[in-house]
Amino acid sequence: MSSHLRTFKLAAWLGWEMESNWTEPWLFALYSVVKPVAGAFILVLMYLAFTQIQGTSWSDPGNQARFTFVYLGNTFFIFVAATLFGTFQVIQADREWYQTIRYIFISPMSFYTYIVGRAASKVAVATFAAVITLVFGVGFLQVRISLDPWNIPIFLAGLVLGLLCLVAIGICLAALSFLTAKHVHGLAEGIPGLFYLFCGVLFPLSVLPGWGQTVGRALPLTYWFDLNRRLLMEPAMLNMVKTNIPGDNLTILALLFVSTLLFYVLSLGLFRLGEYLARKAGKVDMTTAY
Amino acid sequence: MTVAVNRIALNLRALVGRSYPRVVGLQREPSWLLFDTVLPLLGIASYVYIYHGFFAGSEGPEAAARLNALVGFVVLGGTMIAFWLNVLWSMASQLYWEKEMGNLQLYMMAPMSRMALLGGMAMGGMFMTGTRAVVTLLMGIWAFGVVLVVTNPALILAVFFVTLIALYGMGMMLASLYLLYGREAWHLSALMEEPIFLVSGFYFPPAKPLGRAVMLGAAIIPATLGLDALRQLIFPTTALGADVWILPPETELGILLVLAVVFLFLARQSLAYLEKLARREGRLTSRHQ
């Protein structure tokens, strides 16, 4: 256990240094928020274009509810993109760019724990970006949030479970990365895109066709996004956007716990399989630059 | 024994040689079908459904026509994103990665023009990305029922290719600059994704919420005007009104031509500067330096 903890700590420190030591702290802080804020602004401008084209007002209660729904979904999606990318990119970054994977691979530590540690720095940066995005929305874009103090433990438990689930999914993708060429950007765009589309991040699940809604209901992150909105949006506002997700908050929390556990077990199995197949095919330290 | 080589033939061979791995290399991996066509389509679909969500309470033929127009904008914008990402990650960042892999020294020693090398990368990248973009576009049109009206195919082709030349010219220029800034290059590329999607209006008609003056400032990114011109030519009449366009397509083509020439000239200048610096310092092109 202490070996795992030491690996995690050192990998997290390494990840943080790789993430941030290329520049001054203020520039790094700025860099960390520009991307998510720009992403949020894309939605703001899409919404502005919609209200202008439809000739409706931004401050209309229905419009505000819809915008808050979209904005909160986008804010929590920062964790999805950063955590997934932070986890599965480790294989290809160490293998293709830094070409250090062979040394890490033969060192006496758990490679699984090493990847989780490396992802921790991305999660830290994502937390900072999500907080800034939320504050920006509340301060400048009329996003209204209200969190009941009694719900804070549920919110924090949900956040931790959601992040653990994301890390486990990221490890599953890392197992796939062992065997593929440098598709890290395809994965980085595509897999979060899958969750973006089917988890009701930016629109109620009911907008999707029937089969899409079924896929969405099978994904644990759908419930995570819904739980976050239930806890942060004003009830009157939430009622204006029908999500059709059943169950109370504690049921959703229990569901998140079970699915996180399942993904953790799956990630252990897939990671071992990916590692074994890559070793057998001699792909552990391949480079695929063209 | 000295062998005289025709410079034009040599540079052409370098151009073909550097584009070859990009044309052939990726085709050897069938996984590109998933990674480069299906997965990007999911991102496009998300933005399509955002508009569906916005229009959820609106009914009637007028709202449906507006929704269709916006969906068409998203599909075309989402397709063009493939080229911008290719410019960032496979052009602008490429020399830096070649340095990290130890190839750059070999490039610098080889007798061909470095512009031929970058040109080969650009041509290979255009072909590689073009293949994927066409598949994504066709799938997007099919999946979301986008209706295209092609009235002036010659102008569409001209705008498309001049936009690509300007975009890849920009990538060629950035390739040398990125090399000077080392590890920050990676972060610069990452930083030029969402903010550029925002100012270039990849997912919405940008002139509507931002205004024409702002959009003319954003025109330094060739994708801004290229996308606007293509949208005007492919969706000549939309339910969004006439004030969604930045400039007439002919004017935009003219500006794009100027941008293409300027970026290619600047690419040549920055490459020459880099070469001079590499010779003088003796370490700029070496791995881990």
Structure write-up:
- The complex is a heterodimer of chains A (290) and B (289).
- Chain A has helices spanning 2-20, 25-54, 61-97, 101-106, 111-140, 152-177, 184-198, 210-218, 220-232, 235-240, 249-281.
- With 290 residues, chain A is mostly helical.
- Chain A has one domain.
- In chain A, helix 2 (25-54) crosses helix 3, helix 3 (61-97) runs antiparallel to helix 5 (111-140) and helix 9 (220-232) runs antiparallel to helix 11.
- Chain A is globular, with a radius of gyration of 20 Å.
- Chain B is an all-alpha fold and 289 residues long.
- Chain B has one domain (29-281).
- In chain B, 76% of the residues lie in helices and 0% in strands.
- Chain B is built from 13 helices and no strands.
- In chain B, helix 3 runs antiparallel to helix 6 (114-144), helix 7 (153-181) runs antiparallel to helix 8 (184-191) and helix 7 packs parallel to helix 13 (249-281).
- Chain B is elongated.
- Chain B starts with 6 loop residues before the first helix and ends in an 8-residue tail after the last helix.
- The model of chain B has no long low-confidence stretch (mean pLDDT 85).
- The chains are: A mainly alpha (290), B mainly alpha (289).
- At the A-B interface, helix 2, helix 3 and helix 7 of A face helix 1, helix 2, helix 3, helix 4 and helix 8 of B.
Give a quick summary of the entry:
Chain A is mainly α. Chain A has helices spanning 2-20, 25-54, 61-97, 101-106, 111-140, 152-177, 184-198, 210-218, 220-232, 235-240, 249-281. The relative contact order of chain A is 0.14.
Keywords:
heterodimer; A: mainly alpha; 77% helix; B: 289 residues; mainly alpha; 0% strand
**Secondary-structure element string of chain B:** HHHHHHHHHHHHH
Largest sheet of chain A: none
| Overall average pLDDT of chain A | 87
Distance between the termini of chain A: 41 Å
The proportion of residues in beta strands of chain A is under 5%
| Number of helices, where a helix is a run of at least 4 consecutive DSSP H or I residues of chain A | 11
Unreliably modeled segments of chain A: none
What kind of assembly state do the chains in view correspond to? heterodimer
Q: Overall 3D geometry of chain A?
A: globular
Q: What is the helical fraction of chain A, as a range of percent?
A: over 70%
Rg of chain B (C-alpha, Å): 21 Å
